[in-house]
Design goal:
Aminopeptidase, N-acetyltransferase, globular, 5 helices, 8-stranded mixed β-sheet, 195 residues, 30% helix, alpha+beta, 8 strands
């Protein structure tokens, strides 16, 4: 039995469903909303590479990818994954996360993080959940820090970007003992009026 089994996670009108080839057209449309593949600090696929993106996600042994969908309509809003899954130490990372431009700065990301963290800590019994991001992806760093994750450090010269430059990777983590407070904060953020 795998540590991370296929599962659909739902809350507040958002459904995280196991990524499948059937999501290709929806992912392509979500990426096109904002031409997200043009951002040099993200992993969003170019339209012509959407199928390969899905195939790579599905065959990567230590990754479990989700399509982020509107629960009512099934419209694909983006994608996110558990990755670098380490069952022996009960650790997963959350990443490969991106959303259509129209979903950014809405409840979508907060809801997804609540669903993923609750599954990781409450269902899988993880000790630690981690994140990594490009040193120039300041929006991602702020979003991770708003969750209450702690910055672990920077791995210098870690990964090649799509433009051929080499990035430094900023690492973050959240421990199981910190989850109750983070959960309360996420619920607070979701329930407060948006203005």
């Amino acid at each position: 039995m795998a540590f991370v089994e296929p599962v659909t996670l739902k809350a507040r009108g958002i459904a995280l469903v196991p990524l499948a080839p059937a999501h290709e057209e929806g992912l392509r449309a979500a990426a096109a909303d904002g031409e997200l593949w043009k951002l040099r600090v993200t992993s969003v696929p170019e339209p012509e590479n959407t199928r390969a993106y899905i195939e790579t996600a599905l065959k990567t042994a230590d990754r479990f990818a989700f399509a982020v969908t509107d629960e009512a309509t099934g419209t694909v809003l983006g994608s996110t994954s558990f990755h670098d899954i380490l069952p022996a130490v009960k650790r997963v990372e959350i990443g490969y996360t991106w959303y259509a431009a129209r979903c950014q700065r809405t409840h979508v990301n907060t809801t997804c993080k609540l669903l993923l963290l609750a599954h990781a800590f409450d269902t899988l019994g993880c000790n630690v959940v981690g994140w990594r991001t490009d040193n120039f992806n300041f929006a991602s760093q702020r979003a991770i820090e708003r969750l209450g994750a702690k910055k672990d450090g920077v791995i210098r010269g870690n990964v090649m970007r799509r433009d051929g430059t080499i990035r430094d990777t900023v690492m973050y983590s959240l421990r199981a003992g910190e989850w109750p407070e983070v959960k309360a904060q996420l619920l607070y953020l979701l329930d407060k009026p948006r203005g």
